[in-house]
Amino acid sequence: MANSSESSGSLVDLYERALGWLRSPRRHRPRRDERVVPVRVDLVGDSTPPPPAPAPTLPNHPFLTPAEPTGPAAPSQGALAPLATPPDWQFNQPVLLRKSRRASSLIVWTLLGGVGAFGVWAVLAPLGETVVVQGKLQPGSKVKTIQAPVPGVIEAVLVKDGETVRQGQELIRFDLREARSRLTAAEAIRERLLNENQILSAALGDTQASGLSSNQRLQLSNQSEDLRTRRLAADEQLRASEARIAGLRTSLATARNIAERFEALARSGAVSEVQALDSRNKVNELEASLASEERTAASLSATALNTGAAPNADLRGRIEANLRQIAELDSQIRLARVQLQYSVLTAPSAGSIFDIDVSPGSVVESAKTLLRVVPGDALEAKVFIPNDVIGFLSPGQNAEISIATFPSSEFGSIPATVESIGSDALTTQEMAETLQTDQPGLFFPAVLQLRRQSLQGSTRPIPLKPGMALAADIQLRQRSFISLFTSFLDDRRKDLERINSLNK
Fold first, then answer.
1. Domain 144-170+346-372 classified CATH 2.40.50.100?
2. DSSP secondary structure string, 244-284?
3. How many angstroms separate the CA atoms of 3 and 70, rounded?
4. First CA to last CA across the chain, in angstroms?
5. What gap in Å lies between CA 139 and CA 378, rounded to an integer?
6. Are 153 and 175 in contact (CB under 8 A)?
7. CATH class label, 375-503
8. How confident is the model at residue 504 (pLDDT cuts 50, 70, 90)?
9. Which of 390, 357, 385, 372 is nearest to 467 (CA)?
10. pTM for this model (two decimals)
11. In the chain, what are the domain boundaries?
């Protein structure tokens, strides 16, 4: 029994030493002059006296009594054996253990404080309400459209798509060879017709022949001689026709006489019927020839009459025809001169070139769009605001713009300000034509003024270009966090009311 008691005490002492070392902040080993006295607590409150122990090694405590040594080799009073088993000690009075409520109270008050702080924050803390809208970049001023002033052929395109140009820089050059040749030919024909009209006017007596040049007077003389020759030729043709008519009439009379005689002989049987018919056939041929010649003579007589009696009408008709041709030539001359004037098209303002629609050798008509120039002034963002949030938007509100091509997480966003809002909404069809989207509803156009004209890249700033798609976060108003829940509950209540009204 003594050996078992000693081994049990040794195990308890070892356990208490290890537990004390683990609980120690410094985890140091106990000094050799310290002695750990295990205490056994009587939780039941039994008053049985503990076994006696040596008095010199006990601490001075009113509730502890020494226990008797159990081994034969007990240590002396002044020293402790390092490997000796200490005696066991017990409380002589009962101990009542109570659970502390400090930890649970701290947890409860912490939870109550957190809930209260969250409630105050939900009621008082402002939260920004934003709306995300789509749009694109556009220049601050209107895009300049370069059109062909006149029809022509493109000789050279001096710029490229996306190139930056300055005001007055040459953009397109026209081929002027055809225009120059048309101008030269039209001017020569016009000059000839003017000279002819002057001569004809002098022949009619409208102008004095003394005002004509020697060449024009020669042409006037030739004109008069030609008129006289034409008159003589007409008279000669008329006389020849009349002579032929006289001969045909004589031949016709003779043929008729012969035919009558053959008919008489044929009735008496002296000649055959065939001879009589042949003579009658000749009469008919002569009558037809005479009639044709008489018609020719009448035409020649009319021509001779017109040539001799009314030469002025022919001359005035020629003058009118020349004047109409001169008017057409004047139009061609003006067009050719305009082509020469606009041989080179220049940039109306500084900016960037885009939408080039021609190439060298292209044949263009008047007013055809050749290219466009985007002004180089500050860009602005044109966005479209949904109808359900337009009431909270006004000029001056802040916005953040993200370019679709450059992710905002890498290149950042551009601060902007609402500059203007359209007074009329766009329909779904107009939105589809503008942004190529089919979003239902009404949208109001708005313009945002950018505070920067570039994005910050990894090595250098990235300039913005017109036409880039964007998404704008526009700050609408400030509202409390609790209002989000109240508005959600209010919407659900209204939905239930509508459902109830439909079910009734």
1. yes
2. HHHHHHHHHHHHHHHHHHHHHHHHHTSS-HHHHHHHHHHHH
3. 9
4. 93
5. 6
6. yes
7. mainly beta
8. low
9. 372
10. 0.41
11. 1-96, 144-170+346-372, 180-337, 375-503
